[in-house]
Amino acid sequence: MNALDVSNIGRAFPVRGGLFASSKMLRAVEDASFVLPRGGTFGLVGESGSGKSTLAKIILGADEPTRGEVRFGERVFGKTTRDADRRWRQRAVQAVLQDPFGSLDPQMNIGDIVLEPLRIQKSGFARDALHKRLDELLAQVGLPAEFKRRRPGELSGGQRQRVAIARALVLEPEILVLDEPVSALDVSIQAQVLNLLKDLQDTLGLSYLLISHDLAVVAFMSSHIGVLYLGRFMEQGTRDDIVERAAHPYTHALIAASEPDAPDVHAISGEIPSPLAPPAGCVFHTRCPAARDVCRVDTPPEQRLSATHRVTCHFPITSKA
Ligand SMILES: Nc1ncnc2c1ncn2[C@@H]1O[C@H](COP(=O)(O)OP(=O)(O)O)[C@@H](O)[C@H]1O
Ligand code: SF4
Ligand SMILES: [Mg+2]
């Protein structure tokens, strides 16, 4: 069974156009569907503003979709949701964010930060049991036990992210939503944190939704990958479908931009259009080197290239073509 099924999720935000303008709808996510197999990692990749964090918040229950539903096994979060399922999600689906300490009290010590979710969910834990759990978690994320008395300001970025992972694990979750978990870290530290996440996944049997603007990070971690552009899936499939057999011109551009010897990070020409006024036809046509007339008029339907591989393009690039 899948850990997570996301079906036809849409999220539109009303935004004011200007002082005298009427409000418009910003469609941050449009008809997004994907599955995360149990024990796997679904990597969500796309440029800034493509709707990644909006999807993450909906899956975490921090935001409500305008349409569509999210399922974790038998538990359905849609038009109606059972209170028991909401409580289950508060425990079983946890987040690790880019800068988890932005919102935390710098005066709290690491031990209290890690244990806080447990204290909120279930009071009345024996002191000894809490401290045993804390020591076990710090060991799991590779931090010495004496770190529990330190404050966030005394830790490096990589150490702080290990604390954030320990905090996310304290309630024994089944799914972690990792939204740009290594984007704020030096490249040399990124690999250490990603390898820790991989080890924890194997040991604890976790399923991950991993979000990154960096295709290299997503390719390293993921069993499945979805490529988002302006809130729409351009392409999705297994890791190899996307990395070895990319069919969408945008995926090709992302791959070119992530090569170590890429000429510069702007391998994709042109600006991302405003999500308030997305291009007609294919939303990628203003930047696509393969665009033809039909792309400016007709929205491409999603095509299946194989049982696992789907692409939204009139002229997908396939090796047979
Ligand atoms: N609460 C909100 N109100 C209005 N617009 C929003 C809100 N949250 C996100 N957006 C817009 O939705 C789009 C997608 O944002 P986001 O999901 O944060 O993208 P990403 O995480 O891929 O950078 C952006 O255009 C962003 O400005
Ligand atoms: S539909 Fe046309 S514009 Fe869009 S990605 Fe495919 S070729 Fe490019
Ligand atoms: Mg984001």
From TrEMBL:
Family matches, as SUPFAM superfamilies: P-loop containing nucleoside triphosphate hydrolases (SSF52540)
One Pfam short name: oligo_HPY
Lineage of the organism: Bacteria, Pseudomonadati, Pseudomonadota, Betaproteobacteria, Burkholderiales
Residue intervals of the ABC transporter domain: 4-255
An annotated GO BP: peptide transport
Alphabetically ordered keywords of this record: ATP-binding, Cell inner membrane, Cell membrane, Membrane, Nucleotide-binding, Transport
GO-annotated molecular function: ATP binding; ATP hydrolysis activity
Keyword Transport annotated: yes
Annotated family: Belongs to the ABC transporter superfamily.
Presence of keyword ATP-binding: yes
The organism's place on the tree of life at top rank: Bacteria
Entry protein name: Oligopeptide/dipeptide ABC transporter ATPase
